[in-house]
Specification:
Elements: H1 2-20, E1 46-50, E2 64-71, E3 77-85, E4 91-98, E5 106-110, E6 112-114, E7 117-123, H2 133-140, E8 144-150, E9 158-161
Antiparallel strand pairs: 1-2, 2-3, 3-7, 4-5, 4-8, 6-7, 8-9
C-alpha cells in the first residue's frame, strides 16, 4: 500500500509539472539541445544567444542578439536568421564558423546583413563551400557558431554557439 501511494504521488507531481508548463530540464544559456526527430515533429531549430562573453577572447560590449539555424527536412540547406541590438557600430561581417565553444574556427558561410538583421541560406549547391553531411553533424553537435563583426571589434563583437 505504501508503494502505491508513492506511485500516486509521483504521478500527481509529474502531471502537475506538465500542466503548469514548467520545463523539466534547465535550458542552456547559449544553445538549445538537438531536438528529437519524428515524422510529426516540428522542424529542427537550433537557437543561440549572442554575447561578447562567448567571443574568444571575451569582448566587453553592450550588444546582444539571438540567432536560429534551421536545417531543411532533406538536409540540403540550413537557413540562418539573427537579430542584433546595441552594437558599437554597423555590422561589417556576419559569419558562420565551425568550432566548439571556447575555440576559434574556420569560416564556412558569410551571411547577408540588413541593418541589425542577419540572414542567409547555406546549401549543398553553394559554390564556395557546399553544405555536406559533416556540416549538418557539426550543427547538431553544437559545432557551428554565428559571429558578428564590427569595425571596433574586427575579430568579433558577438558570438553564439548554435
Amino acid at each position: 500500500m505504501f508503494q502505491s501511494r508513492i506511485g500516486a504521488v509521483v504521478l500527481l507531481v509529474l502531471l502537475v509539472g506538465c500542466a503548469s508548463g514548467t520545463p523539466t530540464t534547465p535550458a542552456s544559456p547559449t544553445a538549445s539541445p538537438a531536438p528529437s526527430a519524428s515524422p510529426s515533429s516540428s522542424p529542427e531549430v537550433y537557437r543561440a544567444v549572442l554575447s561578447g562573453d562567448a567571443e574568444v577572447p571575451p569582448v566587453t560590449t553592450a550588444a546582444s542578439g539571438t540567432a536560429t539555424a534551421t536545417p531543411s527536412s532533406d538536409g540540403k540547406q540550413i537557413t540562418f536568421n539573427a537579430q542584433i541590438t546595441g552594437l558599437s557600430g554597423p555590422i561589417t561581417h556576419a559569419l558562420v564558423l565551425e568550432a566548439p565553444a571556447g575555440q576559434t574556427g574556420e569560416v564556412v558561410k558569410a551571411l547577408i546583413v540588413s541593418g541589425n538583421s542577419v540572414s542567409g541560406v547555406w546549401s549543398a549547391a553553394d559554390a564556395g563551400r557546399p553544405l555536406g553531411a559533416s556540416d549538418l553533424d557539426a550543427l547538431r553537435n553544437h559545432g557551428l557558431y554565428l559571429e558578428i563583426r564590427t569595425d571596433a571589434h574586427p575579430g568579433g563583437e558577438l558570438r553564439g554557439q548554435l
